[in-house]
Amino acid sequence: MAEDDTPIFINVDSESRPVISRTVSNSRAIPLQAKKNTILKSHGRPPWYSEDGLPICDAFVVGIAGGSASGKTHVARQIVQKLGSIPTIVILSQDSFYKRHTPEEVELAHANLVDFDHPDAIDMPLFAACLSDLKACRQTNIPIYSFAEHQRLDETKYLYGAAVIITEGILALHDPALRALYDLKIFVQCDSDLMLARRLRRDVKERGRTVDGVLDQYLRYVKPSYDNFVLPTARYADIIVPGSDNSVAIELIATHIRKKLKERATRFRPHMAQAGSRSPTPLSLPSTPRVSALSPPSTLRVNAMTDPYENLIVLPQTPQLKGIYTILRDKNTSREDFIFFTDRLATFLIEKALEHLPYRPRTVRTPVDVDYVGKELDVKYICGVSIIRSGGPLERGLQRVINDVLTGSLLIQSDAQTGEPLLLHLMLPVCIRERHRAKETWVFLLDAQIGTGAAAFMAMRILLDHGVREDHIIFVSFLVARNGGICVLRKAFPQVKIVCGAVDDGLRETWLEAIESGEGQIEAEARKVWVVEPGMGHIGDRYYL
Ligand SMILES: Nc1ncnc2c1ncn2[C@@H]1O[C@H](COP(=O)(O)OP(=O)(O)O)[C@@H](O)[C@H]1O
Ligand SMILES: O=c1ccn([C@@H]2O[C@H](COP(=O)(O)O)[C@@H](O)[C@H]2O)c(=O)[nH]1
């Protein structure tokens, strides 16, 4: 089986790529941590939270222990392959959590005089903390360990969004805190002579060792530790899997995981779509836009039109703004005009959103040598995250208004059959990927419209999972459907500000027909969608196609 390029995955990101290699003392280039810590994605991840915005289903965690070269990694990868089309899976290796070593320890390690098989060699608290974050659907940044250098590297690897986590390592079942996190515990049992033969071949080929060195280390540390610390943990396992000829056991494990994932499935989007009619406090904004005080939009000194949901901010409905919306709503508007007016509107909206950032006083000296007491932004990090593709025009607007702003994107699409939102891909800026920075980051979340709100909901949940503060999220959108998911959003995330230009009355469920290519091939399957009415049509398609 091809491991990383097996066709069931649409996207594979693995450290097994021959990306980094380092020259070691014996001057051979050794790839770092081959085939460890892999993220595999097939179809996207369905919602992992309920209507109140809180996560409801943890990731399913499998812990695989066993001797060195017993076949733990092999079992993990076989499970993934057998699972077939399932949401994102992370394979997390205990090897990443070897402690940082002093230069003296590294020298001893090269002479095979360090015991890497003792539980004390592993940073168990960090291992448990990272796993606990991932299980609870929070992001984590795990260390990267180089076997060639016997050292933890300075870089870390960002992981997020796994529905299934498979942890493997010789001592994966040793620590009680780790064991408490597993939903399924596996021990791979293998003959010692087979493990030694495999290890010898692997360590010489992949980890830059000599035959003598491997045997030395094996007799001094590996075998005694296996007998004292590794093998005894087999008693914690739910399943013992043989280290070879184990395809039947793997099939059974995959069936069990598939069943557990099915039990965790939710039906989210239909709830969101009907939320307006169910809500005890439907959105009281007038759908025929009110014209407020006529301040020129060029200065954007406008009064926010508010409703019981005070964090929904609608641009003042000036004749100028209505004129722009009339052009954008007109199905006969040319693409050129559509792009031009969408870009203009995006600038208005972003400027309005900027009013909601904190500012502090700043005094400057003017060219005529007089002090001027003004203001400057009082934020540590700002970034934009757009929902692909329709958030694109707003992202361009953000870039026009804030020079060099960091941006990221989320690909959230509907399942063709169920209409459920699926997280297919995310690329977030570093000020969100690292939790300590995320807490101090303000995020402009950008999408063309809020209909059912399912994509907006997922995007907000993702930011919160990363540690972004709810009141630091400003959602910017051209259009909001009054009776759609906005009602659920405002209940789940009351502190998120939503800046939009218009509120429309209707939200209708419909089917988009399949698109056939010239040769009778299906280019896009028929799919269920919800359209905002009167709306502006599919803003992303009209802008980009
Ligand atoms: N069931 C198996 N059948 C054949 N070879 C296997 C099997 N399991 C593991 N191996 C081989 O043994 C070696 C070590 O396996 P690996 O999964 O990396 O061990 P571990 O992760 O336990 O250290 C690899 O070369 C792998 O291809
Ligand atoms: O710097 C190091 C760290 C660890 N080891 C050995 O690795 C194995 C564990 O890896 P497996 O992939 O599970 O075999 C462990 O037995 C340590 O002895 C090392 O040699 N150098």
UniProtKB/TrEMBL annotation:
<comment type="pathway">
    <text>Pyrimidine metabolism; UMP biosynthesis via salvage pathway; UMP from uridine: step 1/1.</text>
</comment>
<dbReference type="Pfam" id="PF14681">
    <property type="entry name" value="UPRTase"/>
</dbReference>
<keyword id="KW-0808">Transferase</keyword>
<keyword id="KW-0547">Nucleotide-binding</keyword>
<dbReference type="InterPro" id="IPR029057">
    <property type="entry name" value="PRTase-like"/>
</dbReference>
<feature type="compositionally biased region" description="Low complexity">
    <location>
        <begin position="277"/>
        <end position="290"/>
    </location>
</feature>
<protein>
    <recommendedName>
        <fullName>Uridine kinase</fullName>
        <ecNumber>2.7.1.48</ecNumber>
    </recommendedName>
</protein>
<dbReference type="InterPro" id="IPR000836">
    <property type="entry name" value="PRTase_dom"/>
</dbReference>
<keyword id="KW-0067">ATP-binding</keyword>
<feature type="region of interest" description="Disordered">
    <location>
        <begin position="270"/>
        <end position="296"/>
    </location>
</feature>
<comment type="similarity">
    <text>Belongs to the uridine kinase family.</text>
</comment>
<dbReference type="InterPro" id="IPR000764">
    <property type="entry name" value="Uridine_kinase-like"/>
</dbReference>
<feature type="domain" description="Phosphoribulokinase/uridine kinase">
    <location>
        <begin position="61"/>
        <end position="242"/>
    </location>
</feature>
<dbReference type="InterPro" id="IPR006083">
    <property type="entry name" value="PRK/URK"/>
</dbReference>
<comment type="pathway">
    <text>Pyrimidine metabolism; CTP biosynthesis via salvage pathway; CTP from cytidine: step 1/3.</text>
</comment>
<dbReference type="InterPro" id="IPR027417">
    <property type="entry name" value="P-loop_NTPase"/>
</dbReference>
<feature type="domain" description="Phosphoribosyltransferase">
    <location>
        <begin position="316"/>
        <end position="509"/>
    </location>
</feature>
<dbReference type="Pfam" id="PF00485">
    <property type="entry name" value="PRK"/>
</dbReference>
<keyword id="KW-0418">Kinase</keyword>
